């Protein structure tokens, strides 16, 4: 009897080891996905013209560290392409009948199970492929297919189970606990800043923004949430937290479109229940990227998506966030979370804010769309048993990058990046570096004594929904 | 030999060139149709056109891209420029098109063609050498990845000797036969192998963008198809 850990480098549930006839089930799942989703187009094109030039290898931070064949993005994608060619193209089928050759086996599935969780789906290799192959998409699809034969890292599975079938969110925070936490944070505003009217509006109908942070922030990132609330308070933002669903985390993005669709639909459902207009995503990369799939899964007139960084910069630009004269004195650098920066969608807003509030802001090299992944992307940060891998071969580049800046604060507006970067720093002798959220830093320089007309406005949602 | 040469330049060329042409048209047509169908079913119908266009142009005119892995990139770029220009704009080839179909277009001077031909041969061999010596590429490579660049070089090498018979150790007819037949083989292989990227190339960035545009109920429909709609997580 193998223990789960002996089979893969991550834990899976017992039931995953009891699945029989896996190649057949994998192919059935593959067929069902090709039939009902739209991966066929990309696979058809990719399998035809993948030229094996290996330019992707040079862009992959894992391959740069290990130099192992299994870590070349193109090699990894070929694992799935081979299955597609053999079983789902006429030419591959004919070739197999005439000459034999590749057959999908249990061992091959195990190789895939390992390979696709050594990739963080950061998509840094995407712009380096002349043929436009999106290896992140291939990892995304392969993990889904593996999930259908129950190969899912236990950490991701139990969190999703808790979210969809348990308490309702990935951190198992009950509604009373949420309310308690919010009240505690409101008291903190009083104790630390002497302000009494900062509120976390709960279940307010008709608010312009319904707030979805990474739910773990309620447990781990109090300062980020206080920064969020301070910004909403000072700018008179109409917002609310919904007790029906207050979790922006969507691990479906990391292993199954079936789960992803359900989670996105739940988020949209909560916004509709509260008659909210927009989704305000907290400091979380993958929650933002998942929310960008709201138009895909949310049906017509799906709510608009706003990341809190975009909101904060728009408000700051409009002069609605009063700041102290004294800026942050320590050297600050910015880590671009892959999920919001890789396609260039959110790169400038956080920088603009940091340039305003920091005396000494420096860039990492490379940055923006070309930034290195924190090393814990694609949900791997939740898999504690692979920490040595995450902070070693996967996180080494990031550690070097941070070290080169000499910064005291590394701003990472993403719950996953924060956890991972803290571990990277611990394991790579970067004890003096502090990983921090952007709103945490902003909170340090907000001048509460200057606040003017917006008192208490967030408690009475306005119909015209002004910002 | 003359009969063989006429056969290679006549019916075989006609067949292989038509095969390539129709094959590539089919690729483009089927891909375009699949793109339209995918977008019709997609829940999210928005496409960041400017971004896709910019990504496409960055590869079509890869001034920016050559900076990473500069040796390999420049080799590849020169290779592609040479093999695209010479066959299309060689005066000797245009004459054949004029004779056959009455088509005509400006030619490049023969000495330019000579230089580009040598560039094509040298870069093809260099690509194979780079492929064999770089660990990452070597581990990825299949037989066709080595064979195809050399096969591409063959019509260029034989073509050079056709243009310069004085230095040619082989008979003129035999060289011309090799030239025509190797090109014919390539024409047939183009739609069947990775060489088909010549047709797919302009659309690949769009394909990768559209690949993320799933139908709004794709997840639940897969669950239904697998009989897992009520299965506990």
What brief labels describe this structure?
heterodimer; A: 467 residues; alpha/beta; Fumarate Reductase Iron-sulfur Protein, Chain B, domain 2; Rossmann fold; four-stranded parallel sheet; 25 helices; 7% strand; globular; B: 233 residues; mainly alpha; 11 helices
Task: Describe the SSE topology.
The complex is a heterodimer of chains A (467) and B (233).
Chain A: H1 4-7, H2 14-17, H3 22-36, H4 40-49, H5 55-59, H6 61-66, H7 73-88, H8 90-99, H9 106-115, H10 135-147, H11 154-165, H12 175-193, E1 209-212, H13 217-220, H14 222-234, E2 239-240, H15 252-255, H16 257-273, E3 278-281, H17 285-291, H18 294-297, E4 304-307, H19 308-317, E5 328-334, H20 338-341, H21 348-357, E6 358-362, H22 387-391, H23 396-405, E7 409-411, H24 415-427, E8 434-436, H25 438-445
Helix pairs in contact in A: 7-8, 7-10, 14-25, 19-21, 21-25
Chain B: H1 2-41, H2 49-60, H3 70-89, H4 91-101, H5 110-133, H6 135-140, H7 143-163, H8 172-192, H9 197-200, H10 204-210, H11 218-225
Helix pairs in contact in B: 1-8, 2-10, 3-5, 5-7, 7-8
């Amino acid at each position: 009897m193998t223990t789960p850990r002996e089979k893969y480098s991550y834990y899976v549930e017992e039931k995953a080891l009891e699945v029989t006839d896996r190649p057949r089930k994998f192919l059935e799942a593959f067929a069902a996905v090709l039939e009902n989703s739209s991966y066929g187009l990309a696979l058809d094109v990719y399998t035809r013209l993948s030229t094996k030039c290996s330019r992707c290898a040079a862009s992959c931070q894992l391959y740069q560290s290990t130099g192992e064949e299994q870590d070349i993005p193109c090699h990894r994608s070929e694992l799935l392409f081979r299955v597609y060619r053999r079983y789902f193209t006429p030419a591959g089928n004919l070739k197999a009948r005439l000459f034999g050759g590749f057959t999908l086996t249990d061992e091959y599935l195990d190789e895939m199970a390992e390979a696709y969780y050594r990739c963080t789906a950061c998509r840094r290799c995407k712009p380096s492929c002349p043929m436009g192959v999106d290896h992140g998409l291939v990892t995304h699809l392969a993990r889904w297919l593996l999930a259908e034969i129950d190969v899912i890292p236990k950490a991701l599975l139990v969190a999703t189970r808790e979210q969809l079938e348990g308490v309702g969110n990935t951190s198992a925070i009950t509604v009373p606990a949420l309310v308690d936490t919010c009240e505690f944070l409101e008291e903190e505003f009083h104790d630390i800043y002497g302000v009494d009217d900062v509120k976390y509006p709960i279940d307010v109908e008709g608010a312009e923004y319904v707030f979805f942070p990474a739910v773990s922030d309620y447990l781990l990132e109090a300062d980020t949430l206080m920064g969020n609330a301070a910004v909403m308070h000072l700018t008179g933002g109409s917002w609310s937290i919904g007790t029906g669903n207050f979790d922006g985390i969507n691990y479906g993005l990391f292993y199954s479109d079936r789960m992803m669709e359900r989670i996105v639909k739940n988020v949209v459902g909560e916004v509709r229940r509260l008659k909210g207009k927009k989704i305000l995503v907290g400091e979380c990369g993958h929650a933002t990227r998942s929310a960008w799939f709201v138009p895909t899964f949310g049906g017509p007139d799906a709510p608009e998506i706003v990341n809190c960084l975009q909101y904060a910069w728009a408000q700051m630009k409009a002069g609605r966030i009063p700041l102290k004269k004294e800026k942050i004195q320590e050297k600050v650098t910015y880590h671009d979370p892959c999920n919001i920066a890789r396609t260039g969608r959110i790169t400038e807003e956080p920088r603009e804010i940091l340039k305003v509030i920091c005396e000494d802001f420096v860039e990492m090299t490379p940055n923006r769309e070309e930034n290195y992944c924190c090393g814990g992307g694609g949900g791997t940060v939740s898999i504690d048993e692979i920490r040595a891998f995450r902070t070693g071969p996967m996180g080494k580049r990031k550690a070097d990058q941070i070290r080169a800046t000499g910064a005291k604060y590394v701003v990472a507006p993403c719950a996953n990046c924060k956890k991972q970067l803290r571990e990277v720093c611990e394991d790579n002798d970067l004890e003096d570096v502090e990983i921090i959220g952007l709103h945490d830093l902003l909170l340090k320089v907000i001048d509460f004594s200057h606040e003017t007309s917006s008192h208490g406005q967030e408690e009475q949602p306005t119909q015209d929904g002004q910002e | 030999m003359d009969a063989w040469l006429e056969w290679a330049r006549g019916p075989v060329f006609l067949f292989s060139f038509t095969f390539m042409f129709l094959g590539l048209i089919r690729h483009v047509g089927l891909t375009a149709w699949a793109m339209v169908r995918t977008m019709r079913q997609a829940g999210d119908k928005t496409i960041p056109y400017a971004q896709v266009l910019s990504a496409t142009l960055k590869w079509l005119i890869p001034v920016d891209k050559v900076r990473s892995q500069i040796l390999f990139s420049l080799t590849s770029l020169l290779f592609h420029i040479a093999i695209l220009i010479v066959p299309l704009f060689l005066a000797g080839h245009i004459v054949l098109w004029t004779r056959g179909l009455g088509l005509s277009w400006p030619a490049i001077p023969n000495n330019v063609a000579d230089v580009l031909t040598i560039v094509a041969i040298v870069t093809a061999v260099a690509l194979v050498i780079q492929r064999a010596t770089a660990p990452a590429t070597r581990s990825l490579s299949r037989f066709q990845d080595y064979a195809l660049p050399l096969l591409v070089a063959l019509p260029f090498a034989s073509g050079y000797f056709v243009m310069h018979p004085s230095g040619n150790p082989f008979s003129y007819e035999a060289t011309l036969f090799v030239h025509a037949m190797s090109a014919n083989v390539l024409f047939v292989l183009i739609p069947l192998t990775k060489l088909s990227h010549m047709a797919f190339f302009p659309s690949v960035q769009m394909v990768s963008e559209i690949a993320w545009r799933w139908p709004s109920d794709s997840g639940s429909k897969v669950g239904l198809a697998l009989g897992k709609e009520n299965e506990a997580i």
